[in-house]
Specification:
mainly alpha, two-stranded antiparallel ribbon, 15 helices, 2 strands
Length: 347
């Protein structure tokens, strides 16, 4: 059975937790410009712990509302931690690219020569039809340099995802959260596995999406291409449902990545109802983001940088952690309790 409670703060007393919170408040008081942002709130709602014990559909939105400030902070950590993505956006912006035009038809050059040396009515008519051009963007060396820097995302994604997953898990469980300290402590404890899992995660997602696009472009070529397109879609859905379990087990248990993958496959079936709800919620959120881009493009661009990634990750954790607790954590403590009672009886 894998060891649970990798969090060293699980063994802290209430006095030690209060001492840490007091120390953080003293540090925050140094930043007078933002002093208003660190004032004490109205306290913890007496029913807050009931959310972890009763993770219903309505309670998810209650949790997100109560933890809205922390969700915004987690989203900021996610965006800033995965800063190489901005290199890709800059390369795709075309700021350093060469913008020109290209003929739409191969007969453009011969017709151009005919127009210069023998401008007849027939040539002019053909020129009117086949002289159209389209804008073309040519990437420069600077673009390729920034595209290469964007691959640093493979080395930042895993550790950052592990850190924010740990924070979101504690928010769901109603545990005290020390944002930056928890983030960096989790990365330090799980750096090797998080780095490997992050690389595998991005590589597998990229491969599946590439397959979907490839088979979609060849959808009507043959029956096999059509079947492979739907198979690729099914693989994307399956892996999407597995991912929250993978990252939760990474920050919760000491086990190999291969065992995490096998357990995640089992949890997809064991928590099918909750997984379907997470999938529907994600599709609805994606449709909402798409509608924002159509209705008001600037708002659709800003929304992911404000809360969208943290909201989607919290949704996955909200659906996955109750099943992990039911099938892995609770049996562990039950076994520990039985062992403890037997030891007391023997004494």
């Amino acid at each position: 059975m894998p060891d649970f409670n990798r969090d060293p703060r699980e063994k802290l007393s209430l006095d030690e937790i209060e001492a840490r919170e007091l120390a953080e408040k003293k540090e925050k008081k140094k930043f007078n410009l933002f002093a208003g942002a660190f004032r004490d709130g109205k306290g913890v709602d007496k029913d807050e712990l009931a959310i972890a014990d009763n993770p219903t559909f309505v309670n998810f939105f209650r949790l997100c509302w109560r933890k809205l400030n922390q969700l915004l902070s987690v989203n900021l950590l996610t965006i800033c931690g995965n800063f190489p993505i901005f290199f890709f956006f800059f390369a795709m912006s075309g700021y350093m690219s060469i913008h020109t035009v290209s003929p739409n038809y191969a007969v453009y050059a011969p017709l151009r020569g005919a127009m210069l040396f023998h401008n007849s009515p027939a040539v002019s008519a053909l020129w009117t039809i086949y002289s159209r051009t389209s804008p073309v963007t040519v990437h420069t060396t600077g673009d390729y340099v920034f595209m290469g820097l964007a691959f640093l995302l493979f080395f930042t994604f895993g550790p950052v995802r592990a850190g924010v997953t740990y924070i979101l898990r504690n928010m769901f469980r109603g545990k005290p959260v020390f944002l930056l300290q928890d983030f960096f402590d989790t990365i330090r404890r799980n750096f090797r596995q998080a780095l490997i899992l992050g690389i595998l995660d991005l590589a597998l997602l990229g491969l599946i999406i590439y397959d979907i696009v490839f088979f979609w472009l060849n959808y009507s070529a043959s029956a096999m291409m059509t079947a492979m397109f739907f198979m690729s879609l099914w693989m994307l859905v399956l892996y999407f449902l597995m991912r929250p379990y993978l990252w939760l087990m990474l920050v919760t248990f000491d086990m190999s990545i291969w065992k995490m993958v096998k357990n995640s496959l089992r949890f997809v079936a064991a928590g099918l109802k909750r997984n379907v709800m997470v999938l529907l919620g994600t599709l609805f959120t994606a449709a909402f983001e798409y509608a924002l881009l159509i209705v008001y493009f600037p708002l659709g661009v800003i929304f992911p940088f404000v809360i969208l990634p943290a909201f989607l990750m919290m949704m996955g954790i909200y659906g996955a952690f109750p099943k992990i607790k039911q099938y892995m954590i609770d049996p562990y403590y039950e076994e520990v309790g039985k062992t403890g009672r037997r030891a007391e009886d023997a004494e």
